[in-house]
């Protein structure tokens, strides 16, 4: 099966407020999908639904063929136990806008935390792998630093390494460069490009159109909780067919 | 960037003077000296009695018992407080309600009343039986036959403390940003593990200062256990046992105060180290070790 993520009419409402109104898309293994859209368009919510940080209200979400958050038996849905939901999340890495590194642990301890305590990996093995990952994101000299001693760009690179340490089959990026100083954006994007080139399946919410054009296989423009337009990034960016896409792109490019 | 040819001389300025600080300190010293002189020459203080009883065997026993009461009651309070606060914040409505009810009762009634109640427990429940209601009994205990005022004092103080600790810990837990829980969840941690490994260690920084307060307060609240009645703590021995016999309450109160002050001082030192431990990673300031490494790297680079 080549399909990694399939969203089938995904809806999400918070009380009476409908944030997602039927999102349907599919991401193949090794593909990079970039989600763009104005704030409040539901792109972050959709991303959070994929690893069940938010519960889907209607529709279905599959990652690698597994239904997210529920078990389906004879046409009936059963709520998943927290333990099983946690198990699903292990294979899905997530990178946040505000990094969310653990401030009380060093860089190295941040990275080995989940492999050791969630997966039960040996500490020595996890440490070795963590050093490899730190090297990959260009921070091998920062293993013993605490997050507060790192710049935003460095923190975000550590956060990416932390997510990768779980050997995820899918990586979700929620505006990974939005909280960074402009001169630090490039270093994070470079790490993400390398990751995409290495064949990682990625869904990226971002305002970096240059990154979308260069790296994405599929660009999706969302507004008001629905997909307005999608397609090859070059196509969408240079020839937006929809009025709303045109209006949005004229503002961010 | 402009590079200076020769580095400028280090600044050697005349430090700012603070004459009024010296004046203030002088005035205070004089006042304290006068008070001490007065206290030393006033026979009402009974310094001879004070000296005689400061290291008295009964007094030392009282100090030891007070310390034990404090430590056990506080340990019970902290452990139960953690459980209660986690219950209050858990998604389980049964836990939430039970914790809320506990807090309501134990914070809502005076600790003195609670201690009297615990003292009366063996009178209210003379026998404890374990078995099937209206069926066979497996276990039987006659509470009145036991002499357990110390245990009852610990339970009374501990349960009351737990209610306060629960609120302190809850404040600490809610002070940890939501993103921390989210990041842990996204990494596949369970709710319990997220609490244990991510949230509580960070909450400690907020929890410790008020807990230090609670501990010091507990040390002094132990003087209420006379309500149980338990009468071998420091205050009971100093005031009710010895002063009642010698008719010299002032020096005995000073003896008790001295010991409370000594123990509090020791506790404050412990709190300092605890706070230092749990503030790891909070400051951007480098640790001594990291600073040394940077200096070394800089000097090496400078020699190129």
3D structure, described in words:
The complex is a heterodimer of chains A (253) and B (304). Chain A is an alpha/beta fold and 253 residues long. Chain A is built from 9 helices and 12 strands. Chain A has helices at 43-50, 82-90, 107-117, 123-136, 152-164, 182-197, 209-215, 233-238, 243-252; strands at 3-14, 17-28, 32-36, 58-63, 66-67, 70-73, 76-79, 92-95, 170-174, 202-205, 218-223, 226-231. Chain A has a 6-stranded mixed sheet, with helices on both faces. Chain A has a 4-stranded antiparallel sheet with strand order 2-1-4-5, covered by helices on one side. A two-stranded antiparallel ribbon of chain A has the order 6-7. In chain A, 49% of the residues are buried. With 304 residues, chain B is mainly alpha-helical. In chain B, 72% of the residues lie in helices and 4% in strands. Chain B contains 11 helices and 2 strands, in the order H-H-H-H-H-E-E-H-H-H-H-H-H. Chain B has helices at residues 19-41, 47-54, 57-89, 93-108, 111-124, 149-174, 178-186, 191-221, 234-246, 249-278, 288-302; strands at residues 127-131, 137-142. In chain B, strands 1-2 form a two-stranded antiparallel ribbon. The radius of gyration of chain B is 28 Å and the shape is flat.
């Amino acid at each position: 099966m080549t399909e990694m993520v399939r969203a089938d009419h995904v809806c999400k409402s918070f009380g009476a407020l409908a944030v997602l109104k039927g999102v349907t898309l599919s991401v193949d293994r090794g593909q990079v999908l970039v989600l763009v859209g104005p704030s409040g368009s539901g792109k972050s919510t959709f991303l959070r639904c994929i690893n069940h940080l938010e519960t889907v209200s209607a529709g279905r979400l599959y990652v690698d063929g597994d239904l997210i958050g529920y078990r389906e038996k004879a046409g009936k849905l059963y709520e998943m136990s927290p333990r099983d939901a946690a198990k699903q999340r292990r294979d899905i890495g997530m990178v946040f806008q505000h990094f969310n590194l653990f401030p009380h642990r060093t860089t190295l301890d941040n990275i080995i935390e989940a492999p050791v305590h969630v997966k039960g990996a040996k500490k020595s093995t996890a440490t070795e792998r963590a050093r490899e990952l730190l090297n990959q994101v260009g921070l091998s000299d920062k293993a013993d630093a605490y997050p507060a001693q790192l710049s935003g760009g460095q923190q975000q690179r550590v956060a990416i390494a932390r997510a990768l340490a779980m050997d995820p089959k899918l990586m979700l990026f929620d505006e990974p460069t939005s909280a960074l100083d402009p001169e630090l954006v490039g270093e994070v994007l470079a790490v993400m490009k390398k990751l995409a080139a290495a064949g990682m399946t990625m869904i990226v919410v971002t305002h970096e159109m240059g990154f979308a054009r260069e790296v994405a296989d599929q660009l999706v423009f969302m507004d008001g909780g629905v997909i307005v337009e999608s397609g090859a990034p070059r196509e969408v960016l240079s020839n937006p067919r929809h009025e709303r896409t045109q209006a949005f792109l004229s503002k961010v490019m | 960037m402009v590079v200076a040819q020769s580095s400028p001389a280090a600044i050697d300025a005349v430090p700012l003077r603070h004459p009024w600080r010296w004046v203030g300190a002088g005035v205070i010293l004089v006042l304290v000296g006068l008070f001490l002189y007065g206290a030393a020459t006033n026979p009402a203080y009974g310094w001879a009695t004070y000296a005689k009883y400061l290291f008295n065997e009964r007094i030392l026993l009282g100090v030891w018992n007070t310390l034990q009461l404090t430590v056990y009651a506080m340990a019970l309070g902290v452990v139960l407080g953690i459980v209660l606060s986690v219950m209050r914040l858990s998604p389980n409505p049964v836990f939430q309600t039970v914790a809320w009810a506990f807090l309501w009762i134990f914070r809502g009634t005076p600790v003195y009343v609670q201690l009297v109640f615990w003292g009366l427990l063996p009178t209210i429940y003379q026998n404890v039986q374990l078995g099937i209601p209206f069926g066979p009994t497996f276990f039987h205990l006659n509470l009145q036959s036991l002499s357990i005022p110390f245990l009852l004092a610990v339970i009374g103080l501990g349960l009351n403390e737990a209610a306060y600790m629960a609120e302190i810990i809850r404040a600490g837990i809610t002070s940890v940003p939501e993103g921390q829980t989210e990041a842990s969840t996204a990494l596949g941690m369970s709710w319990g593990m997220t609490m244990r490994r991510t949230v509580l260690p960070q909450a400690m920084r907020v929890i410790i200062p008020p807990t230090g307060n609670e501990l010091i307060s507990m040390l002094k609240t132990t003087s209420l256990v006379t309500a149980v009645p338990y009468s071998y703590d420091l205050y009971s021995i100093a005031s009710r046992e010895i002063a009642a016999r010698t008719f010299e309450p002032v020096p005995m109160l000073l003896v008790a105060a001295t010991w409370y002050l000594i123990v509090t001082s020791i506790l404050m030192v412990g709190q300092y180290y605890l706070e230092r431990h749990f503030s790891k990673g909070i400051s951007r300031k480098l640790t001594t070790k990291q600073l040394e490494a940077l200096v070394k790297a800089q000097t090496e680079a400078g020699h190129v």
